[in-house]
Amino acid sequence: MEGVDYLAPERNNAQFDVDEMKIVWAGSREAFEVSDRIARLVASDPNFRKDDRTTLGRKELFKNTLRKAAYAWKRIIELRLNEEEAKRLRSFIDQPAFTDLHWGMFVPAIKGQGTDEQQEKWLPLAYKMQIIGCYAQTELGHGSNVQGLETTATFDPQTDEFVIHSPTLTSCKWWPGGLGKISTHGVIYARLITDGKDHGVHGFIVQLRSLDDHLPLPGITVGDIGMKFGNAAYNTMDNGVLRFDHVRIPRNQMLMRVSQVTREGKYVQSNVPRQLVYGTMVFVRQTIVSDASTALSRAVCIATRYSAVRRQFGSHNGSPETQVINYKTQQARLFPLLASAYAFRFVGEWLKWLYMDVTKRLEAKDFSTLPEAHACTAGLKSLTTSATADGIEECRKLCGGHGYLCSSGLPELFAVYVPACTYEGDNIVLLLQVARHLMKTVSQLGSGKMPVGTTAYMGRAEHLMQCRSDVKQAKDWLRPNVVLEAFEARAFRMSVACAKNLTKFSSPEEGFQELSADLVEAAVAHCQLIVVSKFIEKLQQDIPGKGVKQQLEILCSVYALFLLHKHHGDFLSTGCITPTQASLANEQLRSLYSQVRPNAIALVDAFNYTDHYLGSVLGRYDGNVYPKLYEEAWKDPLNDSVVPDGYHEYVRPMLKQQLRNARL
Ligand SMILES: CCCCCCCC/C=C\C/C=C/C(=O)SCCNC(=O)CCNC(=O)[C@H](O)C(C)(C)COP(=O)(O)OP(=O)(O)OC[C@H]1O[C@@H](n2cnc3c(N)ncnc32)[C@H](O)[C@@H]1OP(=O)(O)O
Ligand SMILES: Cc1cc2nc3c(=O)[nH]c(=O)nc-3n(C[C@H](O)[C@H](O)[C@H](O)COP(=O)(O)OP(=O)(O)OC[C@H]3O[C@@H](n4cnc5c(N)ncnc54)[C@H](O)[C@@H]3O)c2cc1C
């Protein structure tokens, strides 16, 4: 029945103030108001309809994406939306588009790596969308190994220009979003060559297409790289291929904040680390962590609401069957994901702060926190995207058969999300960067240099190598210090074990290769510690609202003890806890699940997602799942006719043949 809230009894069970939790989730009252207003604006505008996209062919889908992007831009201008509001609007449209790369990477690359004059020239054009840009780094032959890129930018002192060239097939740019069909410009990464000397990879602004007829400029071959995983998913994006044949650009289009080439062709390096050329990746990795919490919370919201609606078994004397959310196995799979969504939200907030802090320091020429910022953004990007991709798939399974229908929203969410484990740095490659940082930190411990930031705990080396958990009963695991110490000791001991093993090899490089699987595990342990500790820090803040802090304390314990249970082998083998303490943690976890249960629906309501944004029949706010599933089925294009196309051509002759054979 329309208008009935089937989940109302669940909502009435909540033991906390949902509206206050919405503020905590959004980050502030102001952020909540902006997000809420823009989400409703998108949901109520039929131009942003998205329920038909999985049935569209690639060309229609792409055109539909362009239409939405143009309409969104029109609305942004008409409503005079500010930067934050515009960003929210694009994200609620929920359809990857060239604009993501224009605003998310092209503009930040110019801001971060362009000189003041370059910013003055290019940013106003980009802000008004008079040019559209992409970020073209990856090539057919190299993505992870940025130093292995082959595109060249050779300085010609005769003409004061760079000649951009793709010397081999493998040097073609391959993957950049927005490049395939739309971008007029790109920040192109190429090896800078002056006077025959190779100075490594640098960024250049290159015009790719005419601003009049959109045709590629002379010397440029460009197109889309083809269909990707899923149906709609990331196929709304024109990931592209690009080949340069001696394309000339003026010297002042090399991004010259980090290093310069003079009129005479002299290469000058500013007094800044060369890694700043990688700055845009650090910025985007940081945003990807917050986006992980959004993607995971969407999947969890769908699976939680549906688990409260769905009933299987357990009917006695005609009573209703059991809601599947009441099965302990369902809770043990679902609630850690709910807790993870909150955990990633808070670590994302903290990472944003860290990024802003390092940016301020860089402006003041303080580069001391750059390695920490790189390690944290790389490690947390890896940890949160892997957990989110796995979590979305788990949510699909939690919804049984109906989770496999596109109308559940989960297949689309999964297909569009999984490349996050690869783009902006393959997750394993990034964890190896964290491991390098950890090994460096451990190796410096004896030198008197105190570790700082997220590795500060390693400064308590002696204690962490010796400590034994003093947990005696299950409820001891609710004490934040007990949990923190166990996670710190485990992470530290795993790093120290790797560092010791590295010394057994003839060279550190050989050791690093041989031990890379162990190093990745040590990096994961360190990153999990960061997430747990930032959740605990969040709880030290003043959090208003009836019962809100208590719910977050429960979720924090669920997150930590779930990890402890899942990785108990690490905790036991490093001697941080005993088998008895491990089973006490599991006992506590079971009890926490029972505390989450009455609040589960309200905890996902706190994400404040509109039905439009969720795009899921199973996750509907009102829980009216079955009639809507039935309705959706009839909307499928296959049901446009009773007898399908192809029946008379293929099936009927077959049937007739069978009939004739039978008569013989
Ligand atoms: C606001 C909205 C945002 C919307 C965004 C939309 C998202 C749209 C979706 C997709 C877009 C996708 C885009 C892309 O994928 S762009 C391409 C991304 N590519 C990568 O991420 C490549 C991954 N590889 C690397 O980052 C590097 O090559 C490397 C880190 C793996 C290795 O680099 P290399 O030069 O070989 O370095 P070394 O290992 O030799 O290390 C040297 C030294 O430098 C340190 N370091 C490395 N990277 C950084 C960095 N980024 N910042 C600071 N420092 C860095 C490294 O730790 C070493 O330090 P040392 O040990 O002290 O010497
Ligand atoms: C949807 C999508 C959008 C993208 N958008 C852009 C964009 O806008 N601009 C852009 O420039 N690029 C873009 N990319 C490219 C992306 O950044 C790269 O694909 C990514 O960095 C991974 O690099 P790769 O493809 O070279 O993987 P590879 O490095 O070839 O990885 C293959 C395998 O090798 C392993 N491996 C590699 N090196 C090591 C090592 N040292 N040790 C151990 N294992 C290793 C990896 O773990 C992986 O399992 C996009 C990619 C995708 C999928």
UniProtKB/TrEMBL annotation:
Q: Where, by residue number, is the active site?
A: 424
**Which residues are recorded as binding FAD?**
138, 177
- Acyl-coenzyme A oxidase N-terminal domain segment(s): 17-132
- Give start and end of each Acyl-CoA oxidase C-alpha1 domain: 278-439
Q: Where in the cell is it found?
A: Peroxisome
Keywords attached to this Swiss-Prot or TrEMBL record, sorted alphabetically, are: FAD, Fatty acid metabolism, Flavoprotein, Lipid metabolism, Oxidoreductase, Peroxisome
Stored Pfam families: ACOX, ACOX_C_alpha1, Acyl-CoA_ox_N
Superkingdom of this protein's organism: Eukaryota
Q: Name one GO molecular function term.
A: acyl-CoA oxidase activity
Q: Which family does it belong to?
A: Belongs to the acyl-CoA oxidase family.
Protein name in the entry: Acyl-coenzyme A oxidase
Q: What organism is listed for this UniProt entry?
A: Acacia crassicarpa
